[in-house]
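User: I'm new to structure prediction. If I give you an amino acid sequence, what do you actually give back? Let's try with this one:
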Amino acid sequence: MRKLLHITALALMLLTAAQGFAAPQKQGKKSLQNQIAKLEKDISLINAKLEGNRRDSKQALSSLTLVRSKVSTREKLIREYDRTLSTLNDSIRTCEREITALQNRYDTLQRYYARLVRSSYKNRDSRLWYMYVLSSESVGQGLRRFSYLRRFSDNMGQQAARIRETSARLEESKARFSSLRQEADRMKGNAVKERARLQDEEAEASRMVARLNKDGDRYRKQLQDMNRQKQELNRKVSEIIRAEQEAARKKAGGGKKGGGAPKTTVTEADRKLGGEFAANKGHLPWPVEGVITERFGKHMHPVYQNVELPQNNGVTLVVKRGAPVKAIYNGTVTQIVVLPGYNQCVLVSHGTYYTLYTKLRSVAVKSGTKLSTGQQLGTVDTIGGEDLFHFEIWKGSEAQNPEEWLRK
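Assistant: Good question. You get back a string of structure tokens that encode the predicted 3D arrangement of the chain. For your 408 residues, that looks like this:
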């Protein structure tokens, strides 16, 4: 009888060991792969624009801006490759641990099953089993022993099935490990190539700076024209927003002119819409697809390092020719103006916030048009051979950094 108890104990241990096994956990890399695809797409767009600029010697300064944008994008791409490679290496280490655990589990199942089979073989005489049941002290004990032996027989088949299942999962993990290693090797190769391209692009930027320095008078004249255009844009936008705020103040009957800063009053509807706009900070859609070439704030000139450029109240992007421009949130078209270097500009009110869309060729809206998120405003114009789009966000009369408001 002791042998029978020993056999059953082995079966129960085997059952517990099989149930304790956990399936391998998979790590997703979709977001990293999407980011890499976007950066590669951005670099392709910059390369296409650079190819067009090379046919026009007047675009040397624009080409430098594009090359530096490409350098910055390439650096981001390399960082994403490194992050993806790190994730892959983590997955490889996890997979190695899974394989070790599966192999140990498989070996344990095999050992216990072998012992179980040997014990069953030694006690194969059916009379022994019958005696075990018939020697019961009561009918209840006999039924329990009979059920006990029947479960033992079932367990034999179950354990064999679990061994086959563990073996299959072990082979799957080994195949996954091999696939991860191949992907990691490919990612390493891509990172090496991107670093070599980055060095070439940095060298190209240095050569461009040297060429531009040789023809300093010509490009200083371009710089003066660009600065005047930007200053006029900043002045005009501030003027329009102040006029809008003053009109809102008068309409609401708040305060009187004179004696310090004018008191501004907003309607409850404006306040609500502004609150909804603010609640979406960091999640608003981009008005157009493109690559940022000039960021928000104060910057030094890319060639003449001692020259500070006028405040940039938004972001400038290089885009595909004729790219559609869309409203980033519900609002109302406040005004459409035409400015030198920026062509048609659309100012949209979102309650207490404003968005400005500039360098447009065709405009599909007019002053007073009610807009919904994603509604097309127009298309980007080609100005001086360049396909650039400039965008701004204002909180009242205070310019905001669009990159903090739009989706990453």
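You can read the tokens as a compact description of the fold. Here is one thing that stands out. Strands lie at 291-294, 314-318, 324-326, 331-339, 343-350, 353-363, 370-371, 376-380, 388-395, 398-400.
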